[in-house]
Every structure is written in structure tokens, then in C-alpha cells.
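Quick one:
INPUT:
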């Protein structure tokens, strides 16, 4: 669950603030040959794929860069390509996506890594790899370091995308991490291999379950042992946190003294290739925008769910992320509307985290700017804001048979959709005293048209050390004023 879903949505809408992000790592070209399988070859027991279309896309660090560009980030890409057709195709794709490739070196002695996947229907039948995995020669490594130095200093976040093809050797990794730390720039690493010492001092490592199990010599099936060993590794490397991808189990965020589990977003899986690149891109963009780590993990999980539902190496778009987050917001708003039992359990959880509980109440019939101002001001008094909402029967008892204008469920939904509101609970009584004495809020908020001795629950809240806050009203803003104005303008529905 997102800690601050609205802030996350705002960040995605704003392109994460258009940060400048450096992506360094192994560059490759992913080719896909799509066709139909209708028979088995008479020459050997293998399927015959009737080729229908082909595509190519940047893979490895190039796919991370492509995802970041699609999210609205300014991306500088660094790495090494061969002087060949695949390298030229890779650069053309990057230019189309708006990625700066000034720090990409061409090595005539090195072939560009190519991965060709043959897809029959929706099933990958074969993958052909052409690659060289030799470490960079010292002169090439020195040239790359010279290109990287000015790029590092101008970056908000740096991503090291290691596919074990030779670019991210120990010297390059240590150089980048050292330079970044001197300028307080986060370094996020998608690691490979069994030896993680070259990532010493990075901000985050994001291995998958198999990779971290291999690196820590833990049994993959024993998740508890994997987490325990991973925490030991994190400490030894001086890494701030680990984001371990767990496939269908989602993601685990390992920080000092805590493990946060982020469940997977259930989708039909067509192709997992490139999902790890999308996770890294979203983490980098989220951290550059200053999002909470838990929200970065949830956002990366959402993005991964989107790309695995597609065939081929694809990037997630802001439009897709926003569509998925909007759906999350609708569900989260509904979840804010609680029964008393549910809310008591939630309040217990909030208090266990040391959070301060604020309570206010009202009819909130025809929500207007005065209501919004009251709720936003109330939220400033603590960490969690509960709104007690008069039911339709309660409103009729207070306001007369013509009210409410808006039904209780719709009023609850409107309130739950507001970022300032953490929970909404309906009550049938004339006053919310029963709710107040059941929830024990730290702060009780009402409008400035009340005096403290007139506020229901004021004595009770004061008795357990809480306080009452009266918020000044916004002049000219009230439901009565809106109804009078509507009647003056002869709206038939209100006449």
C-alpha cells in the first residue's frame, strides 16, 4: 500500500521533476522474431515458426534509459558498443527516444551484444545470443572514466545496470561510486554475479531472489534465510538498502532493522524480459523526485506488472502508470471508509508507529472550499485525520427532511478521495460522542463558529491529555450559502 498515493501520482504527472539521470552499464540490442507455429519440422522434432514480423529495441542499460526517458527524465547513457550494424541500430533507437549517448564509446574490436528471441504465438521458443564478456581493455576503461566524470557531477541519480558483459568491472564501479558519494548522489545498482564487493558503498542494490541467494550462498527456497543473509551482506557492503524482486511474491525492501514486503500486482504474464530494467528506472525516477522508499517500491511493482503483460522488450509509459495509479486511488478511497471495528484496529496500528490522531466531524453536504480548508488545516495538527460523517438519517434529524442533498455513500466517497483524509466513518447518532470515546483522538477539530465549551467531546478529549482546535471559517463559504445562491438563480432541482 502506498504511504502517499497522491504525492506519487503528482510526481508521475510532473515527469518526476525532469531529473537528469546517468545510466551506465552493458548495452545490447534485443531482437524479436514473431511468428505462428502450425507444424513440427519433418527434419527434426522442432516447431516450424512462420515468420510474420520483426522488431528490435535497446536492451540492458539501454532499456533502463529508454524507460527513464518515457517517464519524463533527462537521461545520459554511458557504455560501450561495437562498430557494427547492431551498434548503429542501438544508437538510432536511443536518439529516437531522446536519450543522450555522448558517453557511449565505440570499440571496433568488440561486437555489440545481441539477443534474438523467436516467439511462436505467445511463447518464446528459442533465444540466440551473440556476445563478448571480456572486461574492458585498460585504454578503453580510462576513456570511459574521463567521459563519466562530468556526467556524474551533473546527475540527480546514477544507475549501474550490470549484465556481466564486461563494462562494469571493479575499477569502473568503484570510481563511479566514489565520485558519486563525494557529491551525495545516490547510486542504484542492478547487480550480477556472485561477488558484490565492487558495489561497496552504493545506495541500493536490486537483485532478484535467485541472484541474492547465489551471492549469499543461501537456499533460494528458504526466504527467511535469504533475507537474513542479505541483511548481513548489506551491512558488510555499506549499502543503505536492498530492493529484492521476488517474482510472483512481489518485492522486499530491506532497510536497517526492517523488512517491508510489497505484494505483486496480479496480471497475466506474457514476457518477463526487461522487467528488472523497468524496476530500476522507476526506482531512479522516484528517488530523484524525493518519493518515500516504500512508495518507490510500490510504484516499481506497478510498473513491472505493466511490462510483463506485454510481449518483447518494452518500456512503461507515464500514461500507463497514471492509469494504473488512478485505479489504485479509487480502491484506496473505498478502503478509507471504515466500520468502527476496522477503524479501531487502524488507529491501534497508527499509534504503535507513534502517529498523532486528529478527529473532526460534520455533515459535509455539498463539499465546498470551506470544508477543504478545514480538513487541510485539521491534518496539520497530527499525522492521521479521521472524519466522522453524519449518516443521511442523522442529517435529516439535524437539518430537516429536505437534507441531505447528497447521499451518505457519495459524501463518504468525496471525503475519502481527499489527500488530507485518512479515514471516514459514518454515524447515525445526533453527535459523534460515541465515536470520540471509542477512538481516543489526540486532537479534536471544529470550525471557528463554535466555542470550545460547545464542542461535543471537548471535555473527554481534554481528560486524556488531548486538545481542541477551532479553525477559522472561510468567509462566505457554507452549504446554506450555496443552496440560497442556487435558489436565487432558479435551479429547479433546488426550488
Amino acid at each position: 500500500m502506498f504511504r502517499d498515493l497522491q504525492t506519487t501520482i503528482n510526481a508521475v504527472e510532473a515527469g518526476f521533476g525532469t531529473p537528469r539521470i546517468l545510466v551506465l552499464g552493458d548495452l545490447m540490442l534485443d531482437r524479436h522474431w514473431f511468428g505462428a507455429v502450425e507444424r513440427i519440422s519433418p527434419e527434426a522434432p522442432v516447431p516450424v515458426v512462420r515468420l510474420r514480423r520483426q522488431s528490435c529495441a535497446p536492451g540492458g542499460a539501454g532499456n533502463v534509459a529508454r524507460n527513464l526517458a518515457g517517464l519524463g527524465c533527462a537521461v545520459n547513457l554511458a557504455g560501450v558498443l561495437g562498430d557494427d550494424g547492431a551498434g548503429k541500430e542501438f544508437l538510432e533507437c536511443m536518439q529516437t527516444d531522446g536519450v543522450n549517448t555522448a558517453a557511449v564509446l565505440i570499440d571496433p574490436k568488440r561486437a555489440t551484444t545481441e539477443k534474438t528471441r523467436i516467439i511462436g504465438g505467445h511463447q518464446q521458443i528459442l533465444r540466440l545470443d551473440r556476445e563478448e564478456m571480456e572486461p574492458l581493455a585498460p585504454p578503453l576503461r580510462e576513456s570511459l572514466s574521463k567521459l563519466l566524470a562530468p556526467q556524474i557531477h551533473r546527475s540527480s541519480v546514477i544507475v549501474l545496470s550490470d549484465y556481466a558483459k564486461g563494462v562494469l568491472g571493479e575499477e569502473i564501479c568503484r570510481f563511479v561510486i566514489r565520485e558519486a558519494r563525494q557529491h551525495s548522489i545516490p547510486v542504484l545498482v542492478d547487480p550480477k554475479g556472485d561477488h558484490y564487493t565492487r558495489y561497496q558503498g552504493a545506495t541500493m542494490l536490486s537483485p532478484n531472489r535467485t541472484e541474492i541467494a547465489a551471492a549469499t550462498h543461501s537456499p533460494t527456497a528458504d526466504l527467511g534465510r535469504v533475507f537474513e543473509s542479505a541483511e548481513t551482506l548489506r551491512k558488510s557492503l555499506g549499502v543503505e538498502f536492498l530492493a529484492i524482486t521476488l517474482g510472483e511474491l512481489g518485492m522486499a525492501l530491506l532497510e536497517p532493522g526492517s523488512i517491508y514486503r510489497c505484494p505483486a500486482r496480479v496480471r497475466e504474464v506474457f514476457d518477463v524480459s526487461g522487467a528488472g530494467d523497468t524496476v530500476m528506472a522507476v526506482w531512479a525516477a522516484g528517488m530523484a523526485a524525493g518519493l518515500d522508499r516504500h512508495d518507490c517500491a510500490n510504484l516499481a511493482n506497478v510498473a513491472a506488472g505493466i511490462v510483463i503483460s506485454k510481449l518483447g522488450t518494452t518500456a512503461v509509459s507515464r500514461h500507463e502508470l497514471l492509469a494504473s495509479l488512478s485505479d489504485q486511488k479509487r480502491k484506496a478511497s473505498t478502503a478509507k471508509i471504515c466500520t468502527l471495528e476496522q477503524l479501531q484496529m487502524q488507529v491501534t496500528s497508527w499509534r504503535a508507529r507513534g502517529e498523532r490522531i486528529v478527529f473532526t466531524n460534520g455533515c459535509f453536504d455539498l463539499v465546498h472550499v470551506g470544508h477543504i480548508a478545514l480538513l487541510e488545516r485539521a491534518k496539520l495538527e497530527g499525522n492521521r485525520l479521521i472524519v466522522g460523517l453524519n449518516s443521511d438519517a442523522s442529517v435529516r434529524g439535524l437539518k430537516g427532511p429536505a437534507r441531505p442533498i447528497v447521499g451518505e455513500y457519495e459524501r463518504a466517497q468525496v471525503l475519502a478521495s481527499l489527500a488530507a483524509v485518512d479515514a471516514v466513518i459514518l454515524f447515525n447518532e445526533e453527535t459523534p460522542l460515541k465515536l470520540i470515546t471509542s477512538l481516543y483522538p489526540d486532537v479534536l477539530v471544529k470550525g471557528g463558529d463554535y466555542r470550545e465549551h460547545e464542542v461535543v467531546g471537548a471535555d473527554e478529549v481534554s481528560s486524556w491529555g488531548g486538545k481542541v482546535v477551532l479553525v477559522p471559517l472561510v468567509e462566505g463559504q457554507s452549504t446554506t450559502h450555496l443552496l440560497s445562491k442556487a435558489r436565487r438563480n432558479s435551479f429547479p432541482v433546488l426550488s
